[in-house]
Amino acid sequence: MYQGLHNRGWRLFSGGLVALIAVAVTAVPPVIAATDSDLVCTFSKGVAGSYDASKFVSKVAAPLTFEVRDIDVEKQTAMLIKKEGAKGRQMRIVRAINANHFLEVVNEGFLNLTTIYDLDPATQGYPAVHSRHFGVLGQPLFAQYAGTCKKR
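-> structure tokens emitted (152 positions)
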């Protein structure tokens, strides 16, 4: 008898928990507002690395700037523009609580990931992290940057 009551109580609790989470997730506004469909992202700090001679080697990465344009969080698409006048690259958006992840699949299936977090009211910028995972001639190469995105 106790087992039956325990199972029924757990089902009621877990069903209520799922409903609460669903309401919380749908009530969260998008991290990037519709008016912020074009952003300029600047990464002044970064580290680049490689795997060479059976060990990882890292160095300070050069600063990096690019634009994220035509952001559509509902369709989960955006365009990456590396420099003015250049052809953009398609990105997919994965939405999260307090952040959006922008995924770019580059040549040979390598991956770049940019995570843009909630707006910081003090700076009017979005804290962001950019990671690159690629390789050249079989050698693993990677980079990690920290910076900010602002309205274009």
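The CA atoms of residues 61 and 139 lie 18 Å apart.
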